[in-house]
Amino acid sequence: MLKIEAIFRPERVNAVSTALLDAGVTGFHYQNVTGQGQQRGVEVVTGRGGQATTRSAVPKTLLVTVIADDKKDEVVEAIVSATRSGEIGDGKIFITEVRDVVRVRTGESGADAI
Amino acid sequence: MLKIEAIFRPERVNAVSTALLDAGVTGFHYQNVTGQGQQRGVEVVTGRGGQATTRSAVPKTLLVTVIADDKKDEVVEAIVSATRSGEIGDGKIFITEVRDVVRVRTGESGADAI
Amino acid sequence: MLKIEAIFRPERVNAVSTALLDAGVTGFHYQNVTGQGQQRGVEVVTGRGGQATTRSAVPKTLLVTVIADDKKDEVVEAIVSATRSGEIGDGKIFITEVRDVVRVRTGESGADAI
Amino acid sequence: MDSGSIAWMLTASALVLLMTPGLAFFYGGLVRAKNVVNTIMYSFIAMALATVVWVLWGYSLAFGPGSAFIGDLSAIGLQGIGIDDGEGVPTLLFVAFQGMFAIITPALITGAFVERFKFTTYLVFLVLWLTLVYAPICHWVWHENGWLWDMGALDFAGGTVVHINAGIAAVAAAMMVGKRRNPGIEPHNVPYVVLGAGLLWFGWFGFNAGSAVAADTLAVSAFIVTNVAAATAALTWGLISHMRTGKMSAVGVATGAVAGLVAITPASGFVGVMGALAIGASAGAICLFAVDIIKGMGLDDALDVFAVHGLGGIIGALLTGVFAVEAIGGTAGVIEGNAGVMGPQIIGILATLGYSLVVTMAILFVLDKIPGLGLRASEAAEDQGMDISAHGERAFVRDGAD
Amino acid sequence: MDSGSIAWMLTASALVLLMTPGLAFFYGGLVRAKNVVNTIMYSFIAMALATVVWVLWGYSLAFGPGSAFIGDLSAIGLQGIGIDDGEGVPTLLFVAFQGMFAIITPALITGAFVERFKFTTYLVFLVLWLTLVYAPICHWVWHENGWLWDMGALDFAGGTVVHINAGIAAVAAAMMVGKRRNPGIEPHNVPYVVLGAGLLWFGWFGFNAGSAVAADTLAVSAFIVTNVAAATAALTWGLISHMRTGKMSAVGVATGAVAGLVAITPASGFVGVMGALAIGASAGAICLFAVDIIKGMGLDDALDVFAVHGLGGIIGALLTGVFAVEAIGGTAGVIEGNAGVMGPQIIGILATLGYSLVVTMAILFVLDKIPGLGLRASEAAEDQGMDISAHGERAFVRDGAD
Amino acid sequence: MDSGSIAWMLTASALVLLMTPGLAFFYGGLVRAKNVVNTIMYSFIAMALATVVWVLWGYSLAFGPGSAFIGDLSAIGLQGIGIDDGEGVPTLLFVAFQGMFAIITPALITGAFVERFKFTTYLVFLVLWLTLVYAPICHWVWHENGWLWDMGALDFAGGTVVHINAGIAAVAAAMMVGKRRNPGIEPHNVPYVVLGAGLLWFGWFGFNAGSAVAADTLAVSAFIVTNVAAATAALTWGLISHMRTGKMSAVGVATGAVAGLVAITPASGFVGVMGALAIGASAGAICLFAVDIIKGMGLDDALDVFAVHGLGGIIGALLTGVFAVEAIGGTAGVIEGNAGVMGPQIIGILATLGYSLVVTMAILFVLDKIPGLGLRASEAAEDQGMDISAHGERAFVRDGAD
Ligand SMILES: Nc1ncnc2c1ncn2[C@@H]1O[C@H](COP(=O)(O)OP(=O)(O)O)[C@@H](O)[C@H]1O
Ligand SMILES: Nc1ncnc2c1ncn2[C@@H]1O[C@H](COP(=O)(O)OP(=O)(O)O)[C@@H](O)[C@H]1O
Ligand SMILES: Nc1ncnc2c1ncn2[C@@H]1O[C@H](COP(=O)(O)OP(=O)(O)O)[C@@H](O)[C@H]1O
Asked: What share of chain C is helix, strand, coil (3-state, %, to 5)?
């Protein structure tokens, strides 16, 4: 079982949701984070409007879904296609192994619980 | 060392906190996320009150605690018993391995730092 | 590749950002969480000002960065030095293995994508 | 007709209307984030529903000549009130001004049962309560035929009619609806609480100084004592809060201001600045301690409506009798040697407490039995939050999708 | 000069000014979090820009004697208006009061194009629209030389001049600027919506009762019918919302209140309380259904400006003719047997709809072609949110760094 | 007594009271989320504390006959002021109106030292500052015995007494309390800033037009020039902001409006609409550049109190002399050929700057030395945020537990 963590532009969250559901993912969760990477950041106005400065940390959305190992490529592909714009700041996907999963409602665990 | 990530209904967070402390967990952190799973979602009113639609993504709480390997069953059990209602949407628990832990204050690492 | 998750006092986030960039990290993201550990918590006023109680869960910041294996010590050191006050509540660093990374913009994966 | 008085009473009516959105935010900030829309709507819908009730039959029941106990249906639908009727100010302006009081009084009660009361039942409750509780008490106190008016009970701007009445109805409601399953310990939005208190303070000038029903020296006196009592009570509450906890709670200071405003309400046309200082200090101190005592009694009057409005109103009604200055409102108080003023004050308080408690409980008892109504939202609705369950709305949407 | 009337008109002018921050929050709460600053600024900047336009040439074009179609430049920069000029109230006070209307009218339009309109273009649009659309229609309806005034069209406080005008301009704008790329489904902040509605309701007393331009019985009548129509429409909307969805949307109730306020605007000096009940109920029901119908037509009038203001204004203008009471405003309506009043009402509506639609589209057409302007923010700006892209600001900063 | 003037002055007093909650949100939105409750409370508690000081001894010191430099204790506790005293409007109404100025002036100062000043010390500071700085300067300028009044210095509504005074006291406070450890770069809540600015603008009509102390043509003139100056300054600031950064900062536009309101304050009873346009444009441009210059000087006047209020007040005081129109306020200015008016204006500015700077610094110096007081919150308190450390409250609670 794998945990896929994807960080991307907030306005893409609906597209990602749809793509994941299409790819047969059973569930996911997401939240707003502040991200910093190669993207130069966003220009914000300071000094009450008199000056502008670049804020390197920008709003991003972090989405997490746990999937079966064999779904990895499909899911990564789904996320990439829903988030790629080709501009710096598109985001990254991190993949880690999950040892176990438990579904609270039923007590099922392992692959059945995904 | 294991990382336990539990996603559950927001109103259960106090019950989970208490259960974890009772189970001897040393610390945890939690945050609000938006989650989507088998739960049909919540009905929201749109069109200024004229229509209702189902929003599939619902507010959930994600709680993370890092524990020693041998505490796994106890902790999972604590979370399950504090969050299970038997209805769809109760949530899931994901378990991953942690390679190392560092306590900032003391510089301790490994199991001592948990 | 390693995922470094650091939890620390919110007012340290700028110091941590700077330290990480100095340490050559390529990116990171952070968010507000509520944390509970050994720290006794903060005193909050209740009963409309008539009484005070201790709220054990306190605001913390959780920062995540994915790095190459060989950067581990440098990055941990950078975070520790930016967050240590010596008081209870300084926070913890959790280190987990990452199986793969994908950069959405280019499709690169593995170490190149970090 | 005096255009200056019309100008002031138009303004005062608008100010009192604004108190209800103020209350919505004052209460709304105190609950948890998942119940803020519901809490706000308890107040906001009163602006709609109480206004309709008021012009259809409420005004007539309250201010129609009727008997010593209730008005009549002579002015139903405001029939027979011409645009030029009235002395000093047009009757229609008095109708409008008083209508704003009929809005905020039931809205005050809602603080007792937030986070769990069924919204549709609330709508029915509001109509019945205005008709069966508010209108009669209003008639007793403010109509020249009313038995309390006749007895000489002093209530310049609504200490009994509005605050004691709402405060004891809140007790009835808290008892009938029961405790919250899982009450929070911190308000979800302190700035909203202060915003609400600010709007209430601002609007209260209309409430009290408007109760002179003229732009005259009595209105001015009511204005300044209102400000002084609010200030003194806020300060008293803040200082005691600081002494007890080492911190000066903003919610405490805001609540203190409201307690002071409540207490000066019946007194505002009768007492001077020194009386206002005393009334403010008393309300600030007593209501603060009452909050804890009542919580200790196990009654889940969630937002302390009785401690602040009920008790604040009682303090004000009693101290009106103590500090009344003949040169101001035409009636001397105990300090000026007229102990006789206390009797009607006490009778007024007791009558309001008794009548409102009993009739409010009876209304709720009946509503609880009616199929399809019932007092309490389902457990699932309460857990999920009343915003989603009763209104289909989340107060704050800030996830990725915005 | 009458000091009471001055007092009321000063107050009324301040109240109408406050409506624009109210609108800013009403609209601001409805959009997504990444566009709230921009939405608020569309309104707030109108307080600055429209005021300057108004005193420089807007007032003169609207209220200078001129012809039947437009004023003239005789009072440019308010020249020639002395501090003591005027009867009843000073002319300068009428200028100030009317200036507040010139602020809110273009601000109303912005609800149609939020989340995507280019901010700099909006500034130019506002100046042109006030000059070419607002000032002439204002002159037609409210100047004694205006052709609609002359014909006897009744518009007490701006049903045509403000609401129909803004509503149809919103249609023009929504058509010209096109749909949002990715509209949200939930408002980002419901408390802001209710706060805004509360401030609007409060300020609207100045709008309608101030349109009597005196502290007299007509102002009082306008005050009370305003309150009744707002209440009735809010209630109607809320109840229908509850019947349709099983939940009473707070946004719905707030919108209903606004629809009621819109509809009573032209009628407020002509109808009585019963008329107000009917107008409120009609507006609450019809505008609610219109929201869905218009959405179904594929027009992205984002915040339903036409359904609420355009249609609400039309309902109000028509029902003014139906329910006008001679004893109140001097003109009998259809119910009192004077069917002749409907002709001018209908002509006034059609003329406003036609003129405003065509000229607004023409202005936007030209602005779209001007290099450096253009109507639409870039796709990147729209995706990122207008707050960062147009103002360099995030509404809410609450990450670790605060 | 004139009921119209009473009506207006009651309203104006309420409006000025509302400015302080407005300021609380204007300032509160600008700080970081962990300090918003504290920032709001600096203002809100002034409504309580300053009111008590004012009625106990502040009014007497400011407006008792006394000498050329300070009033006396003849009206301590408002003794001797009867309900019917006064001409035009009751004396008690003047007391109430002026009391609102005594609330907002110290609240303005707090913008300098937010996010680090010790709250309990602030309470003591407020009492001393009102007594030792505000009351004397108020007496100099607005009492007929005051030496600046006597010299003919013009300050219609408080350019020197309120704004220059608070602005320079802010400099003293920023110097004495030192820089923040870790200032943020973005306001935490832009809508709060705009809400605050909206309420300030609205309330300022009471501040300036109320300073006519009557519902007369002078009040009307003050009303309209207030609106024009606010609008012009907001627009000027916004346009320069846009030229410099390519984006029109909402915080900038809101600040510009406040700068314009400040600058027109002393002038509002003396200048016409053209003067107001010039004053607004000057304040909008100069204050904007001053913000950067003062930041560059290393003074951590956190919310730019001197740049906006100090400098805005100076600009206003000087341009009052330039643009005064005899037909409006009875005094001709430089443009009408009366250069002599400038002397007293300059002396008034300098005297206020000097006296307030020195005495404010002296008060803070002493408070810093008193055991248990001290100016600065602990480093831990500052890091954690003043909301938790001084008030035991978090502004926004939205984690799982709500
Ligand atoms: N090594 C990393 N660890 C954690 N998050 C990262 C890392 N690198 C990038 N990110 C996240 O991904 C976002 C996009 O990265 P960025 O470098 O700006 O663009 P791109 O992925 O297109 O090269 C960043 O804002 C940051 O939140
Ligand atoms: N595969 C998954 N990966 C990540 N989160 C998941 C996954 N499946 C479910 N979740 C989370 O768990 C929550 C509950 O899941 P759901 O399927 O609705 O109910 P249940 O767990 O009772 O079957 C979801 O809202 C979602 O946030
Ligand atoms: N085992 C754990 N799992 C997850 N988070 C933890 C754990 N222990 C501590 N934390 C987080 O670290 C924060 C600091 O921990 P605490 O025990 O208070 O202080 P210290 O790290 O100085 O001993 C806590 O608020 C909590 O958020």
From this structure: 30, 40, 30
